[in-house]
Each structure stands twice: as C-alpha cells, then as structure tokens.
C-alpha cells in the first residue's frame, strides 16, 4: 500500500473543545401531553428513578403490558381499565401514570410540512413489535387516502405508506399506534472534487484485512458482471446483489465503484500502486441505485443478506440531510446492531458542514454506528481542501444530533482520494479523471470506506490475538480511544482522527454478560509514561430508541475514573473544570481523556445507572495498561478480568419524619471499597437532608443539604466496614420519605 506515516503524536492543545452539554434535564423526553384522565388504554408509566427489574416484573404481574422505554424512567404501556391504573398509581415506585395522547405521536417535522391533500411518505410505528401493522393501517385508513402500503423485512410493527393528512388523522387515533415519522430521502454523501487513495496521512498497520468480509451498499460495481469487472476487484467479490435494478448491478454513476476500491481494491490495474486499505478482505456488495437515480435503501434486507454472507463490517456512504434527526434508517441500523452485536457499521456523516452545526444526516445519527466525518489529506496542488492534515474538511457535516448526542464519532481522510473508476460512469461525475481505471473524488463518502478498511485491519489483528468475535462496541471503543485529537471542536472532529497504528496498541475488554441497574464493575489501569495522553473509552451497543421519545439513549452506563491522587473524573465531562460535576445521560460512548496524566494506578468504574432493557454488554479500551484491581502489588500488566466485579447491594427504606421523630438512622455494612449511592425523596411541602457517617468514628463523610427533591449523594468508600445513613427533617411539619441505598456487597463468584 502507498500509505505513509504521520508524526506519532497529533496536536494536543489543552482540553477538549466544544459547546456541548452532556446532561439533559430529568423529565419525560416526549411531546407535552395532557395529564387529564381519558378513556385511553395507552398510557405512560413513569417510575421514581432508575428502572429495576423487580419493578418491571411487578407491573407485568399486575396486568400492565409494557412497550417502549421513554426517558426518563418511563414506559409506554397498555392498561385494561381505570381500576388497574389506580392500583398501579398506588405503588411506591410509580411516580405518575398519564394518558398518551394522539397529538404526541406525530413527528414535529411532519406537522410543519403536512398540507391538506398533499401526500407524504411516512412510517407508522406500532405498540407491539410482533403485530403486523400493515393489517392495522389498512383497517384504520381509507384506501383513497393512502398508497404503497408495505413493511420492512423483519420489522412487522412498522408500516410504510404514502398518506395525506386525512389518513394520518385516522391512523393516529389508534391505540395500537405510537408514532408516525417521515421516511428519510437518502442520497450519496460524496462531493465532486479532487482526491487520492494514497491516503498519505493515514498510516499502515501492516495488516491487509485478511479473513474479513465487508459489506457495502452503493450505486453499483463497475460493469456489474464478475467476468468483465475492473481488474482491482478480481477475486475480491464474494457476493453481488442487484437491489435497485433487478439483474443489473452495474455502476453508471461511479460512486459505488470508487467507494469499494478505496476499501479493498487490490491495485491490479496500477501494479499495486493504488490499493485500498484492506486488499486482503472480501466484498459483499448491494447495488442500490434504481433506474431513476434514486437509492433503494432497504436497511433490513441489506444488512441481513450481508451478515448471512459472513460480513461483520458494513460501510455505507449515503444518508438523508435531515439535520441530526433520529430517522427510520437510524432506528433500523440500531435495531440490527443490537440484535447482531458482532457487526460494525460505519456511516458517512454527510457534506453539509458549511451550513453550520447540527447538519449531520441520518442514519449516521444512529447510536450504534460509527459516524465518520472527513479530515483533509495533503494534496495542496488539488486545492485548499487538501492542504492541512490536521484540519477537518470544512464541508464535513457537524453535530450535535437533534437530541444533543455527540456525532460524528471520528474523522478520517476524505479529500483528494484516488480510487477505482467505473468503466460505465461519465467523466463529469468526477472532478478529475486520472485514467481509464482511476478517478478523483472527495467527501465523507470516501472517508467512510477508508476507515472501514482500517476496521478490517484491526479486526484481523484482534482475530490473531484470539478475539474471534469482537463486538462492534469494542471496535468503536478501540478506534475512539486511540484517535488523534486535532484540537478542533468535537462537533466537527468527534473524538479525533483515526490512528490505526495506535489502535492496535490499546488495551481492551469486551464484556459480554453486561450490567443491570445498580450493578458495577471495577478495573485498574497503570500509567508509567506521563508524556502521552491517557484515554479510557467506554462504548456499548444500546437498545434501539422509541420513536415516541425525544431522546434516544435507553440503557445508561456511567464511566467514572479516580486518579492516583484521588481526583474523580466523569466520562465525557472534559469541557470545563471541575470534571466530576456532570454525568452523561445522552451518549452511549463515554471517555475520560487526560493530556498529561500523572503516573500511578487509576481506578475505573463502569456503573449500570439505568438499564431498562438489560443486561447491557459493554467494551472498554485504554491507552494505559491493565493492573490489579485490588492494588496488591502484583504484575502491573496483569488483567483485572471481566469478572472481578462486586455485587451491588440495594435497600429501600421508608418512614415518616415529624416533630416526634425528626430524623431516622440506618446502618449498612459494606464488603468492599467502592461507591455508596443514596437518594431520598418525599411528597410533602418540606425539606429533607441526608448525611453519611463512619459508624465507628462518627466522622461525617458526606451531606446533601440543598433544596432538591430528591436529595442525592455519592460517597467513595475507601474500605469495607460499617456506615450510618441519617435522613433528617430540615423544614416543614412532616415528610413521608422513601430512600434508595446502594453500596458494595460481596464479590461476584466466578
């Protein structure tokens, strides 16, 4: 490969840049809906805090049918009658039950664009994922008001149809329907400009992607016939599907052939001079451009067929310019990746960066994909967009997503890429034709297959290390932990520019059994070199979001790191000191990043804060070295193991505070060092304080004395022992309280 090295370290200029909030205010992330009781059996049950399995079981035992999870701490549900609702409202862990009104089901984008007698293509989302919505929709709406009724493969609860306002009004009243959203209009994510596949700024790891199979869905592949295919694809194509035009997988545009060559072209037509990133890999290709030039992006079919053919990496350089929305395509990618956790999907971010922030398109907005932006290459003769390797291309689409998540995840070189040219594509589709076999193009479309080829190289490396079925979460964590910070706003660069050489140097854990609410896992990392940044990255493949929700995170893990000197750091809280005052409840990637780390042992805690759809597997990757979690002086390179976790013991305390009993105290015994979490809430007009003491010395360890309800505090306990928790009436006549306590129990049995 003509891939040369960059300087070992990218610029490190202080802390991360970006005007980014990682906390969303607690509350229902849903369109405002009336709290007045109605005859509707479709309701929202909001719980008092992070979802526990026993709470879900109790609700189910009482006859509630639980549907989608809604942040924060709520479920869509169906109840049989008003009496059942009243019984559920009496449960101590239920905050409220409110009807789910029809007006909350319609996506805001549709409200602004829908006109009488103007039909739009929409997706109707059903409450029950096993119910055929085609039958439901055909029963609800008049045939004259809709057309083209169909459903994605393996997603029977979704129906797609073209409807006018009357049909939508009829369908939305049904209690079997929870949302109606627009269908994204996908397009290619390339820009017609000069480029070169040498990718000088992306350096080789020495791996070719051998043994890896990569899926691509794009316009077509050269002639569409293996017998007359471009020489660079000889022996490379495992499967070729014609989805857009039956029996015709040819590429009359040029985009698909260019993308595939950047990924795994052999360079046969150039004496191996212009190779793709992973020429040792094989290709499963779906031709998706129809005869009108539109893209047929049947996500379920594309991913299912690629996966069945052995592909565990998928590269997609197309999407909709829908300003950060979580679209139907985003949902389908998230759903497939949740059900197939060993698949990695890379999606081009789009090329609308000149329009400003929140221009990233779907499905790059999906939680579980790797959204790829474009950095510049070094080809100044081809224009200003290729003259500085440490800059993000100005046209690369920017975050955040509409619900505030950080996207893109990462950037890779995407300008001035020289790659394979379709023999059927006109020269006008390229900025510059190199010769009969190669041409120049730019865009996030080019950055994505380049990084997908890099993922094939990393996956080959992991395979040789004995990691035979690495999760997509692990590959994402490795890439983001090893990325070079370019000093750009994170809404442009994500976690930085891919650095494949550093990626295979990271230490990692791929935890398959996962965590539930209130469970924790603890690890230790040793740092011996303070001259290199320390990155600790947690990533997980999250449960697909509900279309009824306005925030997409379902399972919420937290990353917490304690430095050798005792400073506590929270994942993604690296924009403004202090770094322990915000906890991310938006993203399914969290990182602690320290430019100049102190030497010593860092304690890393992964906490299952709120896991309504668990257990939640996860992956950790770090530029540090694993050490013994108990600091027993063992081998610094020894691993803690995925199972060195302690059980988190949970207790619920209830009582009434008043003049006769102004306070109550409870004693707990911990079996390990770790975190004690306390949350007390009450209903009356009163104020309650919470204190934690060492039982033996009566030393006050922490106090929550504000005016919040609930009062919450977290205490880092350095040892096992007895501790006392005191809840005290600070103001008011009476307070009927309930207090949740969780603390380190015994170690889990291996």
Can you walk me through this structure?
Strand 33 (687-694) and strand 34 form a beta hairpin. The strands form 9 sheets. A 7-stranded parallel beta sheet has the order 11-12-10-13-15-16-17, with helices on both faces. Helix content is 15%, strand content 31%. It has 12 helices and 37 strands. Helix 6 (255-264) packs parallel to helix 9 and helix 7 (299-308) runs parallel beside helix 8 (328-339). It has 750 residues and is of the alpha+beta class. It is globular and about 90 Å long.
The number of strands is 37
Helix content: 10-25%
The assigned structural class equals alpha+beta
Tally of contiguous helical segments: 12
Biggest sheet: strands side by side, in what order? 11-12-10-13-15-16-17
First-residue to last-residue Cα separation: 46 Å
What is the radius of gyration? 27 Å
Uncertain runs with pLDDT below 50, 5 residues or more? 1-14, 191-205, 631-644
Globally, the shape reads globular
Mean pLDDT: 86
Largest sheet: number of strands, sense, barrel closure: 7 strands, parallel
What fraction strand?
Answer: 25-35%
